[in-house]
Design a protein that fits this description.
The protein is mainly alpha-helical. It has one domain (about 45-315). The chain is built from 12 helices and no strands. It has helices at about 30-40, 45-55, 65-90, 115-140, 140-155, 170-190, 195-220, 220-225, 230-235, 240-265, 275-285, 295-315. Helix 7 packs antiparallel against helix 10. The termini are far apart.
Length: about 325
């Protein structure tokens, strides 16, 4: 997994376009801390937090809070590690250039070296493994397999000989690991049982995470084609990406209705309060292109948070 001697496939830039760097950056260690915070992409962490919330909520009223905390921190560190690997290796592969339209990437901006960012990713994966130990003790070998597979896939998303994100498999990775596995796994370590509702809820939450990725890919479609990053948007075009976002933003609400019926808990229909936000997001995506889609990313994050929090409220009531 080492990248020593790797020659980038595309252009590099030592600094981003004017206006991309944060204004009034603090000096010294505070500047470094700010850079690492940017690299972690905190605005996207709903993708790892919400699945754990939903899976744990389905296990109410018997919740083991230590297990919940370990599952939550493990998931967050896996996502941060994935983000760091993506930041470093997209730069090395030439996918992140000075023409990038998305939020700041610290390696491309010259705030941190790619080797430092990769080292930070390995630290995050190590922390995720440590938080996974209590989960493995409780859940046994199925949880051990899930944990190992999650960390390996997190690296393989951008790294390795066959990076998933570069071969149109990013959505599948997100759906499986930030959807099915995260939700069903969070439920399993609470109850040590399998519940079909948890698997279906994993599809709902995974779809909302796919929305975040698909908006990114729609925004970057031109740059990705230039750097031979074959995302689904780059392969099939912008109309496909818009349709993908529309389906993934609205399907979770139909799934929530199905879960309410399965569990005879009609209070779960409270998630429908967030449905107008999903419609507003779909409309906004259809009308936006390029850097305008960054605002859609914020809406997609808000949609995932709203769905997750309302789902937990429905389970608590």
């Amino acid at each position: 997994m080492s990248n020593a001697g790797y020659q980038p496939a595309g252009p590099r830039a030592s600094s981003p376009p004017a206006g991309k760097l944060p204004a009034n950056r603090p000096p010294g260690w505070r500047r470094s801390a700010t850079s690492w915070l940017l690299a972690a992409r905190p605005k996207t962490l709903s993708a790892s937090v919400v699945p754990v919330l939903v899976g744990t909520a389905l296990a109410i009223p018997r919740i083991r809070w230590t297990i919940f905390a370990c599952a939550l921190f493990g998931a967050v560190f896996i996502q941060i590690g994935t983000n760091l690997v993506n930041d470093a290796l997209d730069y090395q592969r030439g996918a992140d250039t000075s023409e990038r339209l998305g939020p700041l990437r610290v390696t491309q901006a010259g705030l941190l070296s790619s080797n430092s960012v990769l080292a930070g990713a390995y630290v995050c994966f190590g922390l995720a493994a440590l938080f996974g130990i209590p989960l493995m003790i409780r859940g046994g070998w199925p949880i051990a397999i899930i944990g190992i597979a999650s960390i390996l896939a997190a690296y393989a998303y951008t790294g390795g000989p066959y990076p998933l994100a570069y071969h149109g498999m990013g959505e599948l990775f997100v759906l499986v690991f930030f959807g099915f596995i995260a939700v069903a796994g969070s439920y399993y370590v609470q109850r040590l049982a399998v519940d079909p509702a948890a698997g279906i809820a994993g599809l709902a939450v995974g779809c909302l995470a796919v929305v975040l990725l698909a908006i990114n890919n729609l925004r970057d479609v031109a740059a990705d084609r230039a750097s031979e990053k074959h995302t689904l948007a780059a392969r099939f075009g912008e109309r496909f990406a818009v349709a993908e976002i529309a389906v993934c933003a609205t399907l979770p609400f139909l799934i929530a209705v199905a879960i309410a019926g399965m569990r005879s808990n009609w209070l779960l229909l409270i998630v429908l309060i967030a449905f107008p936000l999903a419609i507003a997001l779909v409309v906004r995506v259809r009308l936006s292109r390029g850097a305008e889609l960054n605002r859609c990313l914020a809406m997609a994050g808000a949609l995932q948070w709203a769905f997750g929090i309302l789902f937990v409220m429905g389970c608590l009531a």
